[in-house]
């Protein structure tokens, strides 16, 4: 495990009008590790991810990537750094095949013509490097894929562009047992290849199965960042629901009514 974070957030604040959603949030993502970002609905997980990915601009705080302070003002800035997000809706087009989806908006061309052979080769190599064996044909329409296969294509699309940090938003939420196992294996392989992986999940079994570290948000504050091996399921549930578990978490004197947070703003 690396000693230096690949991505480090410190003192992140974010408000929407009078409502402060993130309060002095810190987060460290290490290469070769899976960091599980957890929290109840309305804790601020999605807002934090949107700040990292350039959809929202932070009000205060610093973002450090690969040891240098950076500014992320747009999704393009994040992509240029090597930060990719796989959202829960996957953003795939059912009427396009796997190759077309993986290169959507980033098509390779040879002159004015699409370079189909190169795109197909790169897509195949990416899936092979991730040890994906559940896809029969790269020219299969996404509409014909199972939920697990769709998730696999979305993840492969994210790592195709030499990404270094991949953020996965509830990747197993709509999957069955067998498909969940396949996706979790893929998540672990991403980390084993040296990427920094952030896994957002409500499923504690998934979190404990694949994560190296757990970062627990509570009402817009980072309650704890801990090694997965150092905590129990019960402690994590207490951090999610109350912001504190024994010696872990927010100070007892911290008020719990940090803000009158409207869930719709940042779920």
UniProtKB/TrEMBL annotation:
<keyword id="KW-0547">Nucleotide-binding</keyword>
<dbReference type="GO" id="GO:0016887">
    <property type="term" value="F:ATP hydrolysis activity"/>
</dbReference>
<dbReference type="Pfam" id="PF00005">
    <property type="entry name" value="ABC_tran"/>
</dbReference>
<dbReference type="InterPro" id="IPR003593">
    <property type="entry name" value="AAA+_ATPase"/>
</dbReference>
<dbReference type="InterPro" id="IPR027417">
    <property type="entry name" value="P-loop_NTPase"/>
</dbReference>
<keyword id="KW-0067">ATP-binding</keyword>
<dbReference type="InterPro" id="IPR050107">
    <property type="entry name" value="ABC_carbohydrate_import_ATPase"/>
</dbReference>
<feature type="domain" description="ABC transporter">
    <location>
        <begin position="7"/>
        <end position="244"/>
    </location>
</feature>
<dbReference type="GO" id="GO:0005524">
    <property type="term" value="F:ATP binding"/>
</dbReference>
<feature type="region of interest" description="Disordered">
    <location>
        <begin position="247"/>
        <end position="267"/>
    </location>
</feature>
<dbReference type="InterPro" id="IPR003439">
    <property type="entry name" value="ABC_transporter-like_ATP-bd"/>
</dbReference>
<protein>
    <submittedName>
        <fullName>Monosaccharide ABC transporter ATP-binding protein (CUT2 family)</fullName>
    </submittedName>
</protein>
């Amino acid at each position: 495990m690396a000693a230096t974070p690949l991505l480090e957030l410190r003192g992140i604040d974010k408000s929407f009008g009078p409502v402060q959603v993130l309060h002095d949030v810190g987060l460290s993502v290490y290469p070769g590790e899976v960091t599980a970002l957890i929290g109840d609905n309305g804790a601020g997980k999605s807002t934090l991810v949107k700040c990292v990915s350039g959809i929202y601009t932070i009000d205060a705080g610093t973002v450090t990537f690969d040891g240098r302070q950076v500014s992320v003002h747009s999704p393009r800035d994040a992509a240029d750094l090597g930060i990719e997000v796989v959202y829960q809706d996957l953003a795939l087009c059912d009427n396009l095949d796997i190759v077309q989806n993986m290169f959507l908006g980033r098509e390779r061309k040879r002159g004015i013509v699409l370079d189909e052979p190169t795109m197909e080769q790169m897509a195949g190599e990416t899936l092979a490097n991730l040890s994906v064996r559940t896809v029969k044909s790269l020219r299969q329409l996404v509409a014909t894929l199972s939920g697990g296969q769709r998730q696999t294509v979305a993840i492969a699309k994210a790592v195709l562009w030499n990404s270094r940090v991949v953020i996965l938003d509830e990747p197993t939420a709509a999957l069955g047992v067998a498909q969940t196992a396949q996706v979790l294996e893929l998540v672990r392989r991403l980390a084993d290849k040296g990427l920094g992986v952030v896994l957002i999940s409500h499923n504690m079994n998934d979190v404990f199965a694949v994560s190296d570290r757990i970062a627990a948000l509570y009402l817009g504050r980072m309650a704890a960042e801990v090694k997965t091996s150092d905590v129990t399921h019960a402690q994590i549930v207490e951090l999610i629901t109350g912001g504190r578990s024994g010696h872990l978490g927010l100070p007892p004197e911290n008020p719990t009514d940090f803000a009158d947070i409207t869930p719709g703003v940042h779920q």
